[in-house]
Amino acid sequence: MENFKKYAVLTVFGLFLLGFGIAHFLLPDVHFSAAERKELAQMPTISVDGIVSGDYFTDTETYLLEQFPLRDLFLDSKRIIDKHIFLMQSSGGYVSADDHLTKLDPTLNEKHVKYALNIFNSILEKHPEIGNAYYAIIPDKNYYMAQVTKQPTLDYAQLYSMMEGLNAEQIDLRELLSLNDYYRTDSHWKQENILPIAQALCEAMGVPFDDSGYTAHSLEGFKGVYYELSENPPEPDTLTYLTNEAIETAVAQRLSDRLQWEPMEIYNEANFTAENTDPYDVFLEGPEMLLTIENPNAKTDKELILFRDSYGSSLTPLLVDSYAKITLVDLRYLKSSMLDRFALDFENADVLFLYSTTMLNSAISAGLG
Amino acid sequence: MLFSSISFLYFFLPAILIVYFLAPWRAKNYVLLVGSLFFYFVGEPIYVTLLIFSSVSDYLHSLYIETHRGTRGAKIALISSIVINLGMLGFFKYADFFLSSINSVLGTSIPLFGVPLPIGISFFTFQTMSYTIDVYRGEAKADKNLATFGTFVCLFPQLIAGPIVRYTDISRELHERKHTLEDLYLGVRRFVFGLAKKVLIANALGEFCAHYRTAQGSVIFAWLYAIAFALQIYFDFSGYSDMAIGLGRMFGFKFPENFNYPFISKSITEFWRRWHMTMGGWFRDYVYIPLGGNRCKKSRWLFNIFVVWATTGLWHGAAWNFVLWGLFFGILMILEKVFWEKYLKNFGLLRYACTLLLILLSFVIFNAATMAQLGADLKAMFGGAPLWSADTAYYLKSYAVMFAIALVGATPLCKTLWGKISARYRSLDAVAEPLCIAVLLFAVTASLVSGGLNPFLYFRF
Asked: How far is CA A293 from the centre of its chain?
């Protein structure tokens, strides 16, 4: 019996070590992970510089990790072990409660917030011809989720306090949202739930807003950014987008990578596919450095320049009827120093900085510039 | 390369095991030597030259000492070896520390060298120094074979994080060792349990300690942090030692034990007979006893303790909190021996509680990045924070099971129970143990693949 045990232990050990090692060599490398929405590392190229600096070995370790056989099974297993054996409240920083999923973000990065603040103020300083300047901070989902889970959160009070240094009028959105205004499996808010947000913004900016006359279009099976990161994901969300006459007749254009203006759809259902990494790209084609939406039949002839992150993609269509022209700038892809190259007309325009707490808290690493 | 990495577990280790066991006996040391040098090269492509230099230097020094035994030349060679080893350690590990301390105190701006610290330098310089000293003392014969000696120095299981293996510990095995099923089995078992201790327990406790730094503090959170860090460093280091001992066993070497359930100690003296035992032994044999130990005047004895503990602290890291940590233990040892041991010896539980409290405080000192942080941590522990906070509740709930596992695992209870059960239910044990190994390997792999927090704390040494 003793010998049986010894051989059994050695066999198990040998099977693990050899089995996975051989499987790695036999299986083809995977290029993209749908669960993680990222390109997976490929075998690095050997170079003398890489070896001497150690980068080659670091990159090889990353490659071996990301191409490990049955990777998704192991990732799921880790979550199950954390939640059901060690009874942890979160696994890998991901939390679930009331069918909602989110990622913990408990640390305020003041350096990042200050960095964003300085960029926004510098834009305002360079363009004194601006009509009115506003800012609105979108609380991330954790702000409301913490009321349910009591999870640690970043110091929102301090973040808001720091942003008061922006030379613009604040439009406070905190009381206008709740957890259910966000997708269960994604970090974003639901367009059908943010009409009050659009109304509050318009009222603050002194433009009319009409919350009636919308038609809802639903796309089932929206698996948000957190869906694959939970060991027990809830039902997929329903992505709903709203249209009205103004949205349907407005003309949208995007600045392509070749710096040419191209027409685009405000809502593009073609992006709601399994092949697309982020179905939320239904709204204004996802991340774009510069967009314009013009509505000659708008209730005003005013112009809005909106500095935004991805939350702005679903909010902006709701403002189309209130502004003759809305210019959307994503400072992650179009640096503030380059704005003048694109002849944005700040003269008497309303300027709105609309950013989530997540973006402000990671402004430097997000590439805001 | 870390033992707890995919590249080591699933590529390097199976490859070297296969090549080693297929190689003829005469080639086995060469396989280990080449494999070990490659192992170090992956982590330190440039500093592998330092490892080779250290090996060749002490090989030559020791041969000279042996052939000139009893002469002045032998003594000079010994001093030369010590100076070279301590010089290397001093330059790479301490030069910038001392320079920046001088700059702080004197307001000067002496430029720092900015030299990266070679991994494991504290371990392999101590190892080669002990060899030369042992040869000088006549306790070991100089190895005439450079490859065999190189194998001793570079042996990858213990190269970068100990245990500090002396030449005399494995000299017989270097020249003639057997490979048995029993050794392979015990080695694998020890390795897997060590791996689980490091990856599943130590890393999770490390996450808890990281949360402490960013969360809303409280007195209770501060104490939980102290407990968590003490357990983290225990499971991290003892887990790594287990892996090293297990790997050594697989290749036919019996390394000395390094940990023996230190948290059941009833005194600080006992703690240091159970914690990092090979390092404690090294300082005893090569610093404390040569200085005179306790066989001298009381003032000299106190000085000896001061030197040993200051250097022990400094060995752990080039920062003043480590020196403070070492001196903290030095003072405690003195007080224990001179004052309170005789009063406390009849109060078992009180002795144990006091010892544990002091150990926890010592690890708070150990882990402080700066003196200011140390002050803040101690203040929080002793009332300088609210008693409780929402974050404390959240993290305690999240890590309660992990704390329970770690607290029980830090005692001999599990080993004792397992021993009793396996002796009584042999058939069950024959199935349960391999199943346990499989489950642990699976869980460890899941943790590694998820790319969790996985630094080994003692690498900075």
From this structure: 21
CA dist B239 → A262, B310, B322 (Å): 60, 26, 22
Please tell me which of the candidates A3, A9, A106 has its beta carbon nearest to residue B437.
A9
Nearest to B64 by CA among B76, B74, B49: B74
Which chain A residues are closer than 8 Å to B428 by Cβ? none
B13: nearest CA partner in chain A: A17
pLDDT, average across residues B14-27: 96
β partners of residue A262: A254
How far is Cα B174 from Cα A243, in angstroms, rounded to an integer?
Answer: 79
Q: Return the closest-CA partner of residue A314 out of A212, A200, A194, A223.
A: A194
Which strand (E) or helix (H) includes residue A329? strand A325-329
Give the lowest-confidence range in A92-96, A207-211, B294-298, B453-457: B453-457
**Which DSSP string do the residues of A254-311 spell out, in sequence order?**
EE-TTS-EEEE-SB-GGG-STTSS-GGGGBTTSS-SEEEEE-TT-SS--EEEEEE-TH
> For residues B320 and B314, what is the distance between their CA atoms, to the nearest angstrom?
8
Residue labelled with tokens 């003196």 = B371
What residues of B are in contact with residue A151 (Cβ under 8 Å)?
394
Q: What are phi and psi of A180, to 5 degrees?
A: -75, 0
Query: CA A239 to CA A280: how far, in whole Å?
Result: 8
CB contact under 8 A, B14 and A4: no
The helix, strand and coil proportions of chain A, stated in percent and rounded to the nearest 5, come to 40, 20, 40
* Packed helices B72-89 and B48-67: angle between N→C axes, nearest 10 degrees: 170
Q: How far is CA B107 from the centre of its chain?
A: 36
The CA-atom distances, in angstroms, between A224 and each of A195, A234, A274, B90 are 21, 11, 12, 54
**A3, A5, A18, A51: best to mutate for the B interface, most B CBs within 10 A:** A5
Nearest chain B Cα distance for residue A39, angstroms: 16
**Catalytic (active site) residue B61:** no
Q: pLDDT of B147-174, one tens digit each?
A: 999 999 999 999 988 899 999 999 999 9
CB contact under 8 A, B398 and A77: no
- The CA distance from B78 to B65, in Å, is 7
Give the end-to-end CA distance of chain B in Å, rounded to a whole number: 15
Of all residues in chain B, the one with the smallest CA distance to A65 is B449
Decide if B43 touches A, using CB distance below 8 A: yes
Yes or no, beta carbons of A64 and B10 under 8 Å apart: yes
- CA end-to-end span of chain A: 68
Are residues A86 and B402, on separate chains, in Cβ contact within 8 Å? yes
| Cβ distance of B10 and A152 shorter than 8 Å | no
pLDDT tens-digit map of A185-239: 999 999 999 999 999 999 999 999 998 899 999 999 998 888 888 777 888 999 9
Q: Is the pLDDT of residue B456 over 70?
A: no
**Is B253 in contact with B219 (CB distance < 8 Å)?**
no
Q: Please state the separation of Cα A67 from the chain's center in Å.
A: 26
A108: distance to nearest CA of chain B, Å?
9
What is the C-alpha separation between B307 and B61, in angstroms, rounded? Answer: 27
- Contact between A113 and A360 (Cβ < 8 Å): yes
Enumerate residues 396 to 425 of chain B having a beta carbon within 8 A of any beta carbon in chain A: 397-402, 405
> Which ipTM was obtained for this model?
0.90
Strand order across the A169-170 sheet: A169-170, A132-138, A350-356, A303-308, A325-329, A290-294, A251-255, A261-264
pTM of the model: 0.91
